[in-house]
Amino acid sequence: MNSKQRKGKSVGTFKVDVEVAKVTEHPEDWKSFRKVLVDTGSEATWLPEEDLIRMGIKIFKKDVAFLMPNGQVITRDVGIALIRTGAFKTVDEVVFAKPSDLLILGAHTLEGFPATVDVYHKKLVASGPMPAAAA
């Protein structure tokens, strides 16, 4: 693909559909979130506060500080949820996003899957076995 073909196309970002459930032994009620931005520059996964509360996901950490791309520091509450997309799933912290926040699938969740980002094909790919220990 030459530069003319790439013009107007964002090669580095893409969105995926994500499902989230409350952490239980046998989760049944999964909530779908469409077009969640895959962002390896964000440590955390951000999903709508209202939906997380409605699902019964409890606050695990209160008023956690986050550094925004513009340099502003904001605080948000954080909970714990089951997160899956396609064949990938994990248990991870999730930020209770306000209506003005982006919905993001962050780096920590990607590591928990474990998945890497294929930006050229705009998809997540299995990253292989996780290291158990350093030699």
Question: What distinguishing features does this structure have?
Answer:
135 residues, globular, mainly beta, Cathepsin D, subunit A, domain 1, 47% strand, two-stranded antiparallel ribbon, 12% helix, 7-stranded mixed beta sheet, 3 helices
Question: In words, what does this structure look like?
Answer:
The protein has 135 residues and is mainly beta. It has a single domain, classed as Acid Proteases (Cathepsin D, subunit A, domain 1). The chain is 12% helix and 47% strand. The chain is built from three helices and nine strands; from the N terminus they run H-E-E-E-H-E-E-E-E-H-E-E. The strands form two sheets. Strands 1, 2, 3, 4, 5, 6 and 7 form a seven-stranded mixed β-sheet that branches.
The CATH topology, please? Cathepsin D, subunit A, domain 1
- Report low-confidence residues grouped into runs of 5 or more: 1-10
**What portion of residues is helical?**
10-25%
Which CATH class is shown? Mainly Beta
CATH architect. name: Beta Barrel
Rg estimate, integer Å: 16 Å
Q: Biggest sheet: strands, sense, closure? A: 7 strands, mixed
Order of H and E elements: HEEEHEEEEHEE
Count up the domains: 1
What gross morphology would you assign?
globular
Q: Write down how many β-strands occur, each being a DSSP E stretch of 2 or more residues.
A: 9
Q: What structural class results from the helix and strand content?
A: mainly beta
Tell me the distance between the termini. 41 Å
CATH superfamily: Acid Proteases
Number of helices: 3
**Quick check: average pLDDT?**
90
| Binned strand content | over 45%
